[in-house]
Amino acid sequence: MTSKQILLGVSGSIAAYRACDLITALRDAGFSVTVAMTKDAHHFITALTLQSFSGNEVIEDFFALPGRVKPVHIELAKRSDLILIAPASADILAKLAHGFADDVLSCTALASDAPLVIAPAMNEKMYENKFTQENIGRLKAHGAHLVAPIHGHLVCSDQGMGHLAENAAIVAAVKKALLTQRSVSAKKN
User: Fold this and answer.
1) Closest of 51, 29, 44 to residue 155, by C-alpha
2) What is the CATH number of the domain that holds 162?
3) Theoretical Cys-Cys bridge with 139: which of 28, 144, 153, 183, CB 3.0 to 4.6 Å?
């Protein structure tokens, strides 16, 4: 699985700070990581920080990329072996579940046939909300792999379900999704 290209989507969640350690874990596992971040993710982490950890340009906005001739979301979709969204906010889950494409991350995910792994992180009430659960169910029904959040400390000072899963579980899900894809591809040939 070495040299596989992972597109890490970072959405607007306080758990965005964990993306740095996740990038390190993915790179230690032999993956190349490119980061695409939503506008709201900027409230929690900077592109420069993510670029420093990934060693690659961070894609923030497909409308502000001077010198690019090809649509950035299509190029990202073509070169990504897997799309991992961690943390996945309720907003990005809803966008993907219903086909909204108003930022570079959602556009890339919709333009890609690569496996999609989502690791939600949000307040327990938001995670357990019937709309969020319906969106997760819809994404799973269409082939997305879920790395469920765990019970832990939440930013609102509560303890509950919604804490981003541990990096080891996320990396294991990435490896499993890639192996599953390879197995399906082999059966088709």
Assistant:
1) 44
2) 3.40.50.1950
3) 144
